[in-house]
Amino acid sequence: MEAINHVAGKAIPFGRKNVDTDVIIPAHWLKTITREGLGKGAFEAVKLEEGNVFTDERWAGAPILIAGDNFGCGSSREHAAWALLDMGVTCVIAPSFSDIFSGNAFKNGILTVALPQEAIDRLMEVAQDETIDVDLDTQSVTTPFQDRFTFEIDPFRKHCLLNGLDEVGLTMAQGDTISGYEGKARETLPFLASPVLAA
Amino acid sequence: MTNAPRTLYQKIWDAHVVDRRDDGTCLIYIDRHIVHEVTSPQAFESLRAAGRPVRRPDLTLAVPDHNLPTTARRDANGNRVPIADPQSAQQLEMLEKNAPAFGIRYIGDADPEQGIVHVVGPEQGFSLPGATIVCGDSHTACNGGLGALAFGIGTSEVEHVLATQTLLLKQSKTFEIRVEGKLGAGVTPKDVILHVIGVIGTAGGTGYVIEYTGNVFREMSVEGRLTVSNMSIEGGARAGLVAPDEITFDYVKGRPYAPKGADWDKAVAWWKSLATDEGATYDKSVFIRAEDIQPTVTWGTSPEDTSGIGGVVPAPEDFADASKRDAVKHSLDYMGLTPGTKLTDVEVQNVFIGSCTNSRIEDIRAAAEVLKGRHKADNVKWAIVVPGSGLVKAQAEAEGLDKIIIDAGLEWREPGCSACLAMNPDKVPAGERCASTSNRNFTGRQGPGARTHLMSPAMAAAAAVTGKLTDVRDLAPAS
Question: Closest to A45 (Cβ–Cβ): which among B103, B159, B444?
Fold first, then answer.
């Protein structure tokens, strides 16, 4: 995972509520066996709508996406995060996110910033012409007009994002602790912890 | 550990904590991991690149389901029928190779046990009450119907579980959904969960694990509970739970991977201890009267867009929230619906009975009961019934249900995810409507431009018969 601290630039003022993962990346794009190249399929159906923000030159390559409540609801497909990354988005700002999506985003170094709807409304306005600045270290979103909104983030996630840490590697270092649990579980919950399958 | 009263969720969580950090994040042990072809190739690739093995292949099961065609997979000579889409073929081939390469049990495309992962898990006794179960698929929540803590994960988490058999998680809040009373005739578990999502909204459960309580769930079969818990994710909750009870134990007992002998007795004793304690509190609760639930369908492009079948298509102005009004406008435009139209006047050209939500034997029976002695309407061009697994298919055929379905003019297919998300060739044409027993009515879900109406198997079968959304209770007696 790439370390991330500061995201600044144009912000795509999408604003729609309940954006589901089928909208972010339709299922027929999930047949890939790599993580790359999904930007082309991102928001495929929305791109066909007249006046949409994704084919508008003003926001081409913008690193920030602004959306409405419950962004990323639906499936667990990490392809949604990969598609955003592939289109150059490394930060999504919305009033709320689905649990699975925000986890997937985090694991790919995409910053999800939850702000109240009033702040979103203001940022949607600013994003029409100006850039937005997101700083993870100070947990703040600022605009050229002196707007400043602060956001909450889980301290562990913040630490991993700032340092680009590999969670699998971190957990593997706890191998002995995991073995300790397994040994105990084989005594107390043998029906769950004992070997079940052979290849 | 204190003796304070605990919820079912809290008890399962506590039993699986490997390590607890100062900030409350816990390393949680995963008892069962099911892998399918869509969300695993990148995870296996990362393991390979880092030289990491799978920690517990014996707790991991690989089953292809999303890309498989639902037409015959072997020709008359027993040779594999090639898969037309090269990308689907490649993804399936990756799983078939990755599973043995990492020592994982693989159920193949033509094995009788093959099926949709969330149907196979419970059916094989691989999914168990009280277990932590994950899969790179959000409908893993389905397994919560057994009283398992089961939830969908992304591919990075699939890799994390393969490598460590654990996940780093923050505890969720708890959400009790209590449904009490007597369900009316024609009201099925699917109607219950669609109604619930209509009440709580698609973000209502975000950050929560739902526990379904009340006599309606207590009296429901395990298959019905699986249907309900399956769609917890449509209510925003990563997982749903129904406390395991005698109905659960009867269902699990004797299945291939279920515990046996002394292990079984020990398991049942523990499962009995999992029910939420008297005096334990939930972070929030919703109470629903069973009598308020009608046979339910969706009219929009979000699973919260539900209505009793007796209702009409709403207007954007009916909604107080400005962004919801905007969403409804988009929805109705996409769905080609005019506010005020009676739902029973909406014609359908396609019918899909299947998916991890509704493809178990009780679902096929419910559809067949409606179809018996009837025939699909002429305006219904495409109607398929896709059993959830090879074993469901065999059971249905043993009961003669396939014949009823075929005689009614519907197609009887091979098991898989099929037209629920249209990754295989089963797609609903653009601009056409589908009465579907699946779980998501999202834009483009059943194919680009496809218009989905979610409902129960009985209601989908009724729609096939009349060619319109139909109140199954109003069907004239079969000729």
Answer: B444
Cβ contact, residue pair A33, B52, below 8 Å: no
**pLDDT tens digits for range B339-396:** 999 999 999 999 999 999 999 999 999 999 999 999 999 999 999 999 999 999 999 9
Q: What is the reported pLDDT for B479?
A: 65
| Co-location of A189 and A109 in the same domain | no
* B399, HSE (Cβ side, Cα atoms, 13 Å): 16
How, if at all, do strands B26-29 and B32-35 pair?
A: unpaired
- ipTM score above 0.85: yes
Check residue A159 and report its DSSP letter. Answer: H
* In-domain check, residue A151: yes
Retrieve residue B373's tokens. Answer: 């002695």
CB-based contact, B177 to chain A, within 8 Å? no
- Partner-chain contact A168 B236, CB within 8 Å: no
Could you give the count of Cα atoms lying within 13 Å of B10 in the half-sphere of its Cβ?
A: 17
CB-based contact B58 A198, cutoff 8 Å: yes
| Sign of the dihedral defined by the CA atoms of residues B319, B324, B330, B334, in that order | negative
B142 annotated ligand binder: no
Task: Give the residue numbers spanning the domain of A100.
Answer: 6-164
- CA-nearest of B404, B383, B386 to B466 is B383
Q: Which of A21, A23, A34, A75 to mutate to test the interface with B (most CBs of B within 10 A)?
A: A75
CA distance to partner chain A, nearest, from residue B264 (Å): 7
Domains of chain B with CATH codes? 1-294 (3.30.499.10), 298-474 (3.30.499.10)
Residues A180 and A92 occupy one common structural domain: no
Q: How far is CA A136 from CA A65, A92, A145, A149, A194, in A?
A: 16, 13, 20, 12, 43
User: Tokens for B196?
Assistant: 């619930």
CB contact at 8 A, B104 and B343:
no
Question: What are the φ and ψ backbone dihedral angles of A92, each rounded to 5 degrees?
Answer: -120, 130
What's the confidence (pLDDT) of residue B2? 60
Interface of B with A in 144-173 (CB under 8 A): 152-157, 159-160, 163-166, 168, 170, 172
3-state secondary structure of B221: coil
> Does residue A132 sit in the same domain as residue A157?
yes
Question: How does pLDDT run across B199-219, given as a tens digit for each residue?
Answer: 999 999 999 999 999 999 999
Phi, psi of B155 (to 5 degrees): -65, -35
Q: Where are the beta strands (DSSP E) in B67-147?
A: 105-106, 132-135
* CB-closest option in B154, B206, B330 to A107: B154
Interface test with A, best of B442, B443, B452, B454 (most A CBs within 10 A): B442
SS (H, E, C) B145-206: HHCCEEEECCHHHHHHHHHHCEEEECCCEEEEEEEECCCCCCCCHHHHHHHHHHHHCCCCCC
Question: Taking the CA atoms of chain B, what radius of gyration do you get in angstroms?
Answer: 22
Q: What is the dihedral of CA B458, B464, B467, B472, to 10 degrees?
A: -20
